[in-house]
Records
---
Amino acid sequence: MCSALVMACSSSTGTTPGHDGGSDDGGDDGSPPVTTRWAAVTAGGLHSLGIHRDGSLWAWGYAVFGQIGKPCASAVECRDNEPLPMHIGTSTDWTAVAAGEAHSVALASDGTVWTWGGTGVGEIGRECADYACKAVAAKVGQDTDWAAISAGGTATFALKTDGSLWTWGSTNTCPSNCGTKPGAYNLAPARVDAANDWALVAAGGQHVLAIKQDGSLWAWGRNFAGQLGSGARDPDFFSPGTATPQRVGADTDWIGAAAGASHSMALKADGTLWYWGTYDLLNSASLTFALSPTRLGVDRDWKIIAAGSRFGLAIKTDGSLWAWGNPSSGALGNGCDSCNGAPQMVPARIGLDSDWVAISGDRTESFGDLGAHALGLRAVPASGATAWAWGLNQTWQLGIGAQLSPFVSLPRQL
């Protein structure tokens, strides 16, 4: 799937954690080394999630909102961040994960969706009065026909097997017909519209992209930076935007989409890559907006895309990894420890490896530059994939351990 969610392509409420020590020694059962067991990784706001090949679920980073599902015996312990991947529960039936700004979502093999964490605006589909409630994964409703998930800043989106699209959480990206609390947030899944032909959904900070089965591209949510691709933008940053999906152009050859904090990306069937919005709302001196889909470069061999809060990532058909956008905090993975300023809009290759198979960018919206980080998977023949991370690590969201440096500017293996 070409979106913020990363899979090499789920029901757990257990409370016994374990840490992935990164050992290269195989398991007692002859399984591959821990460092090659990864099947999926996804970057949230200040935390990250992953799935091993055995279907087990892992989390690391910021713990304050319960988003890493950390069990605890005291309020102080509840708020200790985790610098290494922590095993959540004992179930081995997780098939997909998505991390929002402060919440987590997982899809189980039986078609159920589970959530935990959150800031209390409905993004987990229930109300919780304390940390203990939020930190425990709970099933969203009773439906067993969920097919795909995507977590935005403060909202969750999910596709069903019948092609219908549903959402819950903040009304910044919630259609006008949903919301048990008008003007605030929606606690229960509500249909985005009556259509049954949705094929892909990619939630950003406060806007959403989706592709229908006919290859058409749609967008809705806030549009202060032109991230809806409509040819215009709302100059009022606090405007709620549009709650109804709006078609982006007339093309019917879109196959992938990814949404950041104030920018959008999409991939066409011919391998071309397109963007709109802006990659940098912080650097006002050089602020520019692309108000409609604009082609990025001339290459036609792009395969997988992902959007960070203020940067973009993409993998080519040859397995090489590329990045562009806001150069600060190491998120471009180029080894530059002092880069800042205007966004770099020419994709630059990260390293020389040609075995990248999955990527994910952070979901930060409210935490400023604290969450600018990225994750990726590199294929290991016959044993799975290794997981790599780069960017900010101030809340240990990279999963590489506690670091004195606030960020890492080159990919580091988990």
Note: Residues 34-413 form a domain with the Methylamine Dehydrogenase; Chain H fold (CATH 2.130.10.30).
---
Amino acid sequence: MTKEEQHDLTKDVHLVKVAPFTSTFTWADVQYGVGTSEKEKQILKGVSGSLGGGETCAIIGPSGAGKTSLLNTLQGKFAKEPKSSQGFEQVSMQLDEQTKVNMYDLAGNAKMRDIWVNYYGDVHGVIFMVDAADATRMEESARTFKQIMSHKRLSNKPVLLVGNKQDVAGAATGEALRESFGVGALPNVVVGCFSAKADSETAVDERLEPALESLLGVCKERYEELEQRVAADLASFKQEQEKKKREQKERVLKRVMEKAFPESGEPVECWDEADGLQALSEEMLLSSVDELPPLAKEAAAFCRYQKMVLQMVGAMAVPVSKKTTPLTWEQIMEVLARIKQAIVDARLKMGELAGAAMV
């Protein structure tokens, strides 16, 4: 089976990942630290990797819900005491002849919230674990569950809502969880109750296996459909990430270009033509200015040879990273023209607002 763990909206949440044999889960440049802003210990820095697979599930839930205990039980680590995750751990296991399971445990807390949701596109199903014996956090857990279920990349995917710690007196029943978590309105969600922690193989809760199989069985039945959705989700996620990066770069470029087109006075930090073209040719790793394409020279003149703009323009044409797709000079000119127009429009709007305020 699969699992992915990470942190939840308030404390520990783990995302785990599973797989049969086709899709591949990847992560890149993961950063994670603990401590205060003044004194922080870096646990993860620039961690990248991938997990091959197919059928993939996410195991998520608030801290203390029993996610790590479930992983330990599935691995046969009955004597191991669970600890809150503060780093990265990968686990692989073979569920059956057809299904390989890759799992990873990634710390979460508040700093990780924007990171672990990015992996929803990879999953075919979800396991959401709740400490059914902790009534004080039930409302928080239900609120988190509903928020997660509303995410577009998890909507209508098979979900197992687990009421863990059934060995504790007073633990919420499956019916109580269905009601408080609003499962009745979610046909893709099934509820299973068991105790994830076990001291030995013979002590494993007999309800655990059928509960997990109820999720994995649906994932297998819907595998082709879910795999197509995973592929589509990952493609759209990649496009969204590329768009965010592009917009961020353009915001920076806009701030810099404003120096080339000040509201009054002379352009700031700009070279003359000769020095500007020389700088651009060096940025593009050319041996001389004569090798610059005509549109490159036009772009340099368009931005008034502003130093930082030329550096950014050169990086657009010849990216430092091989993973970044270079832009054509036609595309670069479009970007520069669009940003210049945005600067003009913003100033016109500010003028209109100032005029309206005076009236």
Note: Residues 1-37, 41-52 have pLDDT under 50 and may be disordered.
---
Amino acid sequence: MHQVADVAAARDGEVVGDQLAMAPPPHRLGAHHGQAQAIRLVEQIVDGGEELYKRMRKMLIAKGVVEPDEQELKEMGGPPAPPPPDPVQVAMVERLKAQTAKDQASTTKTQMETVATVHDGQSKNLELQKMVEEIVGKQLENLLAARELSMPPKELMRMERRAESEAR
């Protein structure tokens, strides 16, 4: 006697392992054969299977597993509505929009500050040019006055420097 898990069955004279296995059905219900075939098999085997087939098909169409035919599209009133957006993705999009708006505002602020700085620099440059023009104008006036008085230009410049230092 061989070692068998069910000793009582072996003693009763039953032979274990010599019987043929049950043959698989001609149309297997595996996922690799497609769900539509499985539904058709149910329709053929079960009494009232046509109604069950229709309900299962509608469920598969709603899940996007099976494409509806023209008749089903007419019954549904057109193509199925798209699924609602994923709330996590919607939140991520909104966050990106907010960050973009914040970045744009920051960029605009920096541009305005740059424009203000450039404007201030140009204003200071204009003030400096005005001061230089005033100084050159005074020097020309003094040179003309020195010429009238017959004073040498070097002496006149010394007098201007003294006047400027006393004014400070």
Note: Residues 102-167 form one domain.
